[in-house]
Amino acid sequence: MAILETYLMASYYSFGSWIFHPYSDWNVARRGRRDGLKNLPSWKDPHQPPFLVELKQVGDSMLREIGEDWSQVNRKMKSEIDSLRQGLEHRNALEAEATAEHSVAHEAYKQEHDIPPPASRASAFWYWLLLAILVASELPMNSLVFRLFGESEILTLVMAFAVGGTLVLCAHYLGEMLKEGYYKRRTNSIMVGVLILIPVIVVGSVALFREVYLESSPDAPKNLSQMAAYIGFCSFNLVLFLVGVVASYRRHEERLSRLLERRKLLDKKRSSRSVLQQEIARLDAERVKLFQAHHLRGMQIKDTVERLTAKYRTHNLESRTDREQNPDEGQPRSFLNAIEVKVPEHLQDIDADVTKARTAGGGTA
């Protein structure tokens, strides 16, 4: 049967024009003429001739195989698509939750400032540039102190940078905590105190070491009192520290930070949902494409069987010798019955399996 099916499919394509093909137009016509010369089928016989029965069986068998192949492909793809759609429902729920949180943060900012929130925070470039300038400003004065220990120039600069970086880092976190109100809790109040105490200790200690270095250095100016130099050095460093605190205070804002965080989360949820929707759309399109290919194959087989049946009957009638004996009937009785090669329902409707399942379950199609 498999060989016959191959012949039948080939007859639809260019191979069917090869005269030695069992199901070529030439061979089917030859078979019709040969049976016609034998007056087969008989004029009164209602049954189809063996060749047409065989042809129909081959067509039905091929259609069943194509239908089964499509059913397997369809079940696999439907399962994958349904799984993705369940995931999409979950992501829609997460997006709805993120949207509600964003709306709350948006309204909170609007009520506090009486203006709509900005679309985005101002660029952090200038803020971090200012902090870098503050650290660089600490290097020349602090490097003098660490020369007292007689270390290499590179190590001296590293230690001076560490002092400047410590002051700026404390200023950054102190400004953030003051702006966002974190100091209202007892633990955070202690942290605020530590962030203030560390710069005071560091600046005071560095200033003391600097005075010791200047006293031992023959190149140090003698017309400036030690107390004035000490106070000036401390004041300079504390002013830089306060500049960092103010910059950090203006940079940070709890409600805006919360709003932008919620907005970023919402954008992420929307992007995730969009990616999943695109994947579902891609699989749906691929499923439709595969269905159309299977549907086309099924219709090709049906058309081929019907075309070959008509050719067989035409040449059979032309070759019969008993036509004059039956002038009242134009053709044998069996030829009055059409050869019906039925394409399976699920090869005609992409959702036929789903509709059948709903109908069996008492639902509506």
Q: What is the count of helical runs? A: 9
Distance between the termini: 37 Å
Order of SSEs, N→C?
HHHHHHHHH
The 3D shape can be described as rod-shaped
State mean pLDDT (0 to 100 scale).
Answer: 81
Which key terms come to mind for this protein?
365 residues, mainly alpha, 74% helix, rod-shaped
What does this structure look like?
The structure is a single chain. By secondary structure, the protein is mostly helical. The protein contains 9 helices and no strands. The protein has helices at 2-12, 25-37, 50-113, 125-146, 153-180, 186-216, 226-251, 254-319, 352-360.
Gist of the model:
By secondary structure, the protein is mostly helical. About 75% of the residues lie in helices and about 0% in strands.
Strand and helix layout:
Blueprint: H1 2-12, H2 25-37, H3 50-113, H4 125-146, H5 153-180, H6 186-216, H7 226-251, H8 254-319, H9 352-360
